[in-house]
Write a structure and sequence with these properties.
Shape of chain B: elongated
Strand content of chain A: 25-35%
Strand order of the largest sheet of chain A: 9-8-7-10-6-1-4-5-11
Radius of gyration of chain A: 22 Å
CATH topology of the largest domain in chain B: Rossmann fold
Distance between the termini of chain B: 64 Å
Strand order of the largest sheet of chain B: 7-6-5-8-4-1-2-3-9
Structural class of chain A: alpha/beta
Structural class of chain B: alpha/beta
CATH superfamily of the largest domain in chain A: HUPs
Distance between the termini of chain A: 60 Å
Oligomer: heterodimer
CATH topology of the largest domain in chain A: Rossmann fold
Number of helices of chain A: 7
Helix content of chain A: 25-40%
Largest sheet of chain B: 9 strands, mixed
Radius of gyration of chain B: 22 Å
Number of strands of chain A: 13
Order of helices and strands of chain B: EHEHEHEHEEEEEEEHEHEHEHEH
Largest interface: A-B, 87 and 87 residues
CATH class of the largest domain in chain B: Alpha Beta
Number of domains of chain B: 2
Number of domains of chain A: 2
Bound molecules: flavin-adenine dinucleotide, adenosine monophosphate
Strand content of chain B: 25-35%
Chain lengths: 279, 327
Amino acid sequence: MPTADASGGGLHIVVCAKQVLDPDGVNSFAFWGRLQVGGDGRSFDTGEMVPRIINAYDEQAVEAALRIRDARVDCRITVVTVGDEEAGAILKRCVAMGADDAVQIVDAAAGLGDGFRTARLLAGLIAELGDVDLVLCGRQGSDYDQGTVPAALAERLGAALVTMSAGVAVEGGTLRVVRVTPRGEEVVRATLPAVVSISNEIGTPRYPSSRRMMQARRQRPERREASDYEGAPGAVGVEVTRLMVPDVQGHCEIIEGGSAAEKAERLMAQLHERGLLGG
Amino acid sequence: MAEHVLVLVTAIEAGGPLRDADGEALGAAQALARERGCEVACALIGADVAAAATEAAERGAGLILTADAAGLAAFDGGRSVTIAAEAVGRAEARVVLIPRGPDVLELAPRLAARLDGASVVGATEVRTASDDVVAVAAVFGGAARAEYAFRAPGPHVIGLAPAVAEVPERRPGRSAPAVALAIPEADGRVRTIEAAPDVSGPRLEDAKLVVAGGRGLQDGENFALIRELAQALGGMPGASRAIVDDGWASFEQQVGLTGKIVTPDVYFAVGISGASQHMAGCANARCIVAVNTDPEAPIFTFADYGIVDDALDVLPALVRLARERGA
Ligand SMILES: Cc1cc2nc3c(=O)[nH]c(=O)nc-3n(C[C@H](O)[C@H](O)[C@H](O)COP(=O)(O)OP(=O)(O)OC[C@H]3O[C@@H](n4cnc5c(N)ncnc54)[C@H](O)[C@@H]3O)c2cc1C
Ligand SMILES: Nc1ncnc2c1ncn2[C@@H]1O[C@H](COP(=O)(O)O)[C@@H](O)[C@H]1O
């Protein structure tokens, strides 16, 4: 990435978005004990029953980019995804929210859970775009919960990295980023170029109007192939070789009673008897 | 020097001892080192790491690597990664284990990417398979687990989940050769301009008893009942993400995958459905009590005791009983 050019030409923001299985759908399958691994041994057999959607944190990363624009920073917003043929669908929502351009890298190896490969492809695309100042990611994919891509991308691009952000502002060619830490919020200043990962504390993303949805539906994302950037096919970092669904055996003792107060009393007696209430 | 399995401990506060998580990582490293026919190295990065270094050697590390500077008491992004990368080189490590802690999520993938390796975080299991290591970690918030193979030429960097191994016993007087690592300048690209609040009070992660509320509380005001019960029982209040998002409770109180991981003796889940992402934060409690109006709620498959009733009737009764006990 080139260094930020605060002197005109505007800021180029790239938002990285990933398509994932709807986690609520996966949860429902798990609740009813119907979550199963498919024939390939490394993906669920939920088929079309669980829809594929944009990773929620990535929708919030788009929101973070749009808030920079709302703050009257002259900027161009490009959304990018790496995935199979269908994955490009999520870009339409991002464009409807307000992103200017969309690029999809089609990658046959996208299902291997290899964030290092994804980061390589994204770094290749970002180098090709040439003028990118800021890359926004989600804090993690809600599929593998790893958070590899933002960190690996920052290393590849030689850019500053700020994780777990609840708000990003551009101030005079630098970033002011609010971070969520286990102790509460902190604020950091970061130089550009930078990669920032966005956490859910940033709040609810805006809802695109139906007019914008209609327009976005007609816009085709630009298309690239993984082979444009990466010689070797297959995993380059890690590879999910097996998926396993734990068998949760319930062992709950339901406390019966005629009233809530009676149940409460019996519960407290049990906990007390087992020495679980301290002193 | 020869290959070592490296344990990487960062952000050691002035003179601090090893934490449980660090000891567990040494235990996991020892098992792997035995299988690989090599020794364990431990890198200690922080402010005044002497006490931690002594302890690491006494707990079995055969090589100690230290980076000691006041500014390293907290994880320092690119600088910590640079020091860690040197430690990997010195230890000729193919396998790097990082104890659980808030920095792993950044440190593991950055270190891996810098050294052309690969990382997996949240590993609940690390084992040797045909000369290489395999890591298992929860996916989809805990609804399933994935087994990962490493395909990168560089080191395999693994961030550990709690309780992957026993802490090796301490043998007082045991020592190991120590090497000081170079300490580069702070990289300056990311600077803290407003620090996080200096919370010195009790931490949710350490609480022996947690009373957590969810959307079943119906209304934000009712979170007061959760606080009252926690207080009456000498514990701390917690919350599901749903009600943190709604503003009924604060982010610091969130339990789960993207909140705190708690391990109390008793965990009350009141009006919480039991989504995998929530359970990821409390499944290791010794005893889980669920209060929920819906007898089919998934929380009951994880709970030890259940009350099927309205939280707003059960909570006041529990508060009264707890206060009577305390009085
Ligand atoms: C990537 C990702 C990360 C996430 N991280 C977290 C996390 O860290 N922590 C977390 O908690 N969640 C997390 N979630 C969200 C999680 O999936 C659930 O949506 C959330 O835990 C649900 O919160 P809840 O149980 O309070 O609400 P609900 O699921 O709405 O459940 C409310 C429960 O209350 C019961 N109830 C209703 N009325 C009453 C009453 N009067 N008395 C008693 N019970 C009643 C209902 O039967 C129901 O079971 C995450 C989700 C994703 C996708
Ligand atoms: N296939 C992908 N295409 C585009 N962005 C991605 C992809 N995978 C991960 N990312 C970005 O990296 C973040 C962390 O994802 P992960 O490393 O998969 O946990 C996501 O929130 C996205 O912003």
